[in-house]
Write a structure and sequence with these properties.
By secondary structure, this protein is of the alpha/beta class. It has a single domain, classed as Rossmann fold, CATH 3.40.50.1820. It is 35% helix and 22% strand. Strands 1-2-4-3-5-6-7-8-9 form a nine-stranded mixed sheet, with helices on both faces. Helix 1 packs antiparallel against helix 2. The longest helix is centred in the middle third of the chain and has 21 residues. The protein is globular and about 50 Å long.
Length: 283
């Protein structure tokens, strides 16, 4: 990755944080069950669309969030779509929390099979919408937290939820992936073979209180091929979501995504020499 490329992407992120307008399109995509799901599309910044990138939020998130990911992927030439997931968005989280506390409500939501089935319908509808507008190029699925679990299921990870993905994307990016537990059994990721970037931080603890190191287990279980694991020093769970004092985290993630996708396009998946603020392991 060149210095000019890094500066360009960082400039896009900083401009977004300072309130500069970007090309966004709110939309509704029609699912196979004839209901609609909200989304926000970020048009590619380049004249030619490089491909499509669908972004799946965490539990309780919405299409209004993850702007930094939409802008990063837009700057790289992708048509990026941040999806809203009705079965696991804000209203759904409130319903799961009713009569209990937030932690228990979240734990219930992230293990709800219907929530994941809804997510996969949202993904299929958003993909169809995006491919009409960008028919060529790569397809990426990106997710944070529950969105990372969605990414892993789509990529072929075995799970306790009873949901099976189609592995229909060319590459995957999982931010704050989950280790073995209520969603995934041991050895869940041994069949994940497409290019995969996993990112976590040294303050990115699991919902049940497990150390951030548990989030590295999926990478260790994946077969050799094209897998990258990045650990961002000092980054928390909400920093990776684009909330809180996360400007440095967002810039590191943007640079890493740029480098990863460049390596995938080259077909060798070799990492760059060094990425500032990141401990990177590959296989």
């Amino acid at each position: 990755m060149s210095r000019s490329s890094s500066s360009r992407i960082l400039g896009v992120i900083l401009a977004g944080l300072l309130g500069t307008a970007h090309a966004q399109e709110p939309l509704l995509v029609e699912r196979q069950d004839r209901t609609s799901a909200p989304a926000i599309a970020y048009a590619p910044a380049s004249p030619t669309c490089r491909g499509i990138a669908l972004i799946s939020p965490g539990a309780g998130g919405s299409e209004q969030g993850y702007r930094y990911l939409g802008e990063t992927l837009s700057a790289l030439g992708y048509l990026a779509v941040v999806m809203g997931h009705p079965e696991s968005g804000r209203r759904a989280l409130r319903e799961h929390v009713r009569g209990t506390d937030l932690r228990e409500g979240l734990a219930d939501l992230i293990t709800d099979p219907n929530a994941y089935r809804g997510r996969f319908m949202d993904i299929a509808a958003a993909r169809q919408w995006a491919r009409v507008r960008c028919a060529e190029g790569e397809s990426l699925l990106v997710g944070h937290s529950m969105g990372a679990a969605t990414v892993m299921m789509e990529a072929g990870a075995r799970n306790r939820i009873g949901v099976r993905g189609n592995d229909a994307f060319d590459a995957y990016i999982a931010l704050s992936p989950q280790g073995p537990g209520s969603i995934f059994p041991d050895d869940a990721w041994s069949r994940v073979r497409k290019p995969m970037l996993l990112l976590t931080g040294t303050r990115d603890t699991e919902l049940g209180g497990a150390s951030w190191e548990s989030r590295t287990e999926p990478f260790r279980n994946m077969p050799p091929g094209c897998a990258w694991l990045g650990v961002i020093d000092g980054a928390s769970h909400m920093n990776l979501a684009g909330r809180g004092a996360s400007r440095a985290t967002e810039a590191t993630i943007a640079r890493t995504i740029d480098a990863f996708l460049a390596a995938v396009r080259r077909g060798d998946c070799r990492p760059p020499g060094r990425l500032e603020g990141l401990a990177l392991t590959t296989k």
